[in-house]
Specification:
Two copies of one chain form a homodimer. The first copy, chain A, has 433 residues and is α/β, with parallel strands linked by helices. Helices cover 46% and strands 15% of the residues of chain A. Chain A has three domains: 182 residues, Nitrogenase molybdenum iron protein domain (Rossmann fold); 144 residues, Rossmann fold (3-Layer(aba) Sandwich); 37 residues, no CATH class. In chain A, the strands form three sheets. Chain A has a six-stranded parallel sheet with strand order 1-11-10-9-12-13, sandwiched between helices. A five-stranded parallel sheet of chain A has the order 6-5-4-7-8, sandwiched between helices. The first copy, chain A, is globular. Chains A, B: It catalyses: L-histidinol + 2 NAD(+) + H2O = L-histidine + 2 NADH + 3 H(+).
Chain lengths: 433, 433
């Protein structure tokens, strides 16, 4: 049974706080195994990578076959239907157009002291995208990771994707091609992350690693953080729908199920001031559930992690939403813009009844790699800036140094950093002498 | 002896690669101790925090004295000289002015399909700044961490600073006051990071933790990453100076020593096409060293980690700089802007002979919290965006959904995510039926 709460219940605050604190996914303790795998790849490079791929993916590789050849990619892609290709291309075009607008601007100005100040954005030189194999091998995620990197100006963009038993999803290869990926390596797990971070004879090291993965991949990313940049450590998916009484209960039920079907750890929550709608959505959801191909997964998610909360009004709904900081927030209300203005913490907001969250997963344009597990309080979905970095710039004139140098010298002395002070003083003495 | 290399040496590439791979600081393995401390603070809150502060800082606190009172702060600040206060205020004003320009803009537009798309930036609600105690307790770092947070719009900003034996640096408290910090807690170490991340009865949890610290603090930040946001894990400081023959060798020597005096693990490198200048800088540096208060530290840094590299020309210097990706890059050349354009990876660039790096540490305006250990390849110095996050926004119209919905449905089916497809299909059926 999903959790059914009303903010007027005596026990509401305790129950809501418990839900917020609930850990939906037990992190497997794989850190020791991952540390050993990373050390092995660092020490033995390709040999370790090939041996581990043989063990975990039942696949015999050589340095020459670590990457898909052009002929192999062409042969796989030829199996994709024209309709699937057209859909992927439409998605890529829309994702590219949205992310093009995220490109940041450089700046430079002269201030009152005569100092010239500014900053400059540059792209990361090389990035590696992790793409899971098997069931969670989503071509849409390839687009969502690779396109921001290309828009940022990343020069070398590679994919690591395990192919257990040699099986690959042709749509993943097509998505990589459409997005402009240079090379696809058929390796996965912690060993792939280690190869991308440290490099091997065949796989050149990258500067940034992004993309979802299992517990081994997540632990490996956490371990190589600092050596390379990483994106967030993604947790199970979540949706929060805030709806008013007039909303269509079947549409909301399907939107909630489209998160629940991802994973038994996924979470779908409805918050509404209308108790009648709450009942109608529950009924619609129970009616849709048995017919789903993934009924078992979606049912477990709904039973174990689902929640329906009835509030006094929409303001109270927004306040609860801010405490949840949902990955996906859908506003099925008359004035979604007004409500969105009150929702400060969310990865992505879907405004109005005609914007199902699934549009955002594929073709809306915004990224579908979003902060989970309440991390929208402090982080953003994947974007172009994740593949760029800012260099600050400063140029003093003699006059500027004369104006602000003495304060720098004073602070250096107060911090007992004498050489800092002397480096300023030597120049001031030249100006004064 | 610092490393002396010339790019025309036969062994140059191997020696340079070895220098790049060199680990200047052995990370103490404190992870198990830190895990236990965090678990203790999570389980016992204030009681654990107070007990650990008693043990590590020899300071007996109660929940009531965890934070400095207004009277205590006023009494400490009264000890600061007017000159030091004026210097701090000038620094704060310049840092604030620079960071105000970093505030990002929201966006929104209607695209060809009729979809309304956009994004919105919002501030993190609460941030905690870690400030080391003792020798490395720098008021300038308080400004550099706190001001971007305030400019971003962070509502609750707290500082955690250990006060071993009860001793605090009054300039740290003044810097916190000038920057607008709400509360200063006299706790430190992994226990302070745990309290900020998880909260105790007295210290409310924050959403983001920034600031430098020792191995315990760094390990604790790495462990709470995900529960809260963190900034980078900072390593020892570095400077790279690229200079031409006409440059002043004494100024360059002092700039290099102002990094070397931080820490024996710090690194100062000179790259120049002029072998004569290389010798003059070395001589100037050796001449300045013995007179420094921190001669032992700076000398160890220079001996163990210093380097002088003679190149064929400035282009080769820029190429080496890009492989180093220095935290601080100083360009003492005739046309620093032209050379800066070729230096893609650096935390901060200081242009021309009148811009000693120490200006950037205090009063330049740009942030002095910068990526170390080659991480400027993929990350930026601390900035306003570190205290903000982006929410993507999308609103479909019926027409937009009709245009792009079928592609979303098709991709959902190709990924075996049936409910995703149905959530779009149910709306399309309404439009068509």
């Amino acid at each position: 049974m999903p959790m059914l709460l009303s903010t007027t219940d005596a026990g509401f605050e305790a129950a809501f706080a418990a839900m917020l604190g609930q850990k939906r996914e037990e992190a497997e303790d794989v850190d020791a195994a991952v540390a050993a795998i990373i050390a092995d790849v660092r020490a033995r490079g390709d040999a370790a990578l090939i041996e581990l791929t043989g063990r975990f993916d039942r696949l015999a590789l050589t340095p020459e076959t670590l990457a898909f050849s052009k002929a192999e990619i062409a042969a796989e892609i030829a199996r994709v239907s024209p309709e699937d290709r057209a859909a992927l291309e439409l998605a890529a075009e829309r994702i590219r157009a949205y992310h093009e607008r995220q490109k940041p601007e450089d700046a430079g100005w002269t201030d009152a002291a005569g100092a010239w100040l500014g900053w400059r954005w540059t792209a990361v030189s090389a990035a590696g995208l992790y793409v899971p194999g098997g069931l969670a091998s989503y071509p849409s995620s390839v687009l969502m990771n690779a396109i921001p990197a290309k828009v940022a100006g990343v020069e070398r963009l590679v994919v690591a994707c395990p192919t257990p038993g040699g099986v690959v999803n042709p749509l993943v290869l097509l998505a990589a091609q459409i997005a402009g990926v240079d090379t696809v390596y058929r390796v996965g797990g912690a060993q792939a992350v280690a190869a991308l971070a440290y490099g091997t004879a065949t796989i050149a090291a990258v500067d940034k690693i992004t993309g979802p993965g299992n517990a081994y991949v997540a632990a490996a990313k956490r371990r190589v953080f600092g050596r390379v940049g990483i994106d967030m450590i993604a947790g199970p998916s979540e949706i929060l729908v805030i709806a008013e009484g007039a909303a269509n209960p079947d549409w909301i039920a399907l939107d909630m199920l489209s998160q629940a079907e991802h994973d038994a750890s996924a979470q779908a929550i409805l918050i509404t001031p209308d108790a009648g709608l709450a009942r109608r959505v529950q009924a619609a959801l129970e009616a849709r559930l048995p017919g789903l191909e993934r009924a078992a997964i979606a049912g477990a998610s709904w039973r174990d992690n689902g929640a329906v909360i009835v509030t006094r009004d929409l303001d109270e709904a927004a306040a609860l939403s801010n405490r949840i900081a949902p990955e996906h927030l859908e506003l099925c209300v008359d004035d979604p813009e007004a409500l969105a203005a009150k929702c400060r913490h969310a990865g992505a907001i879907f405004l109005g009844a005609w914007t199902p969250e699934a549009i955002g997963d594929y073709v809306g344009g915004p990224n579908h790699v979003l902060p989970t597990a309440r991390s929208a309080r402090f982080s953003s979905g994947l974007n172009v800036l994740d593949f760029m970095k800012k260099t600050t710039l400063a140029r003093m004139t003699p006059e500027a140094l004369r104006a602000i140098g003495p304060a720098a010298e004073r602070l250096a002395i107060s911090e007992s950093l004498q050489a800092h002070g002397l480096s300023v003083r030597a120049r001031l003495d030249r100006l004064n002498g």
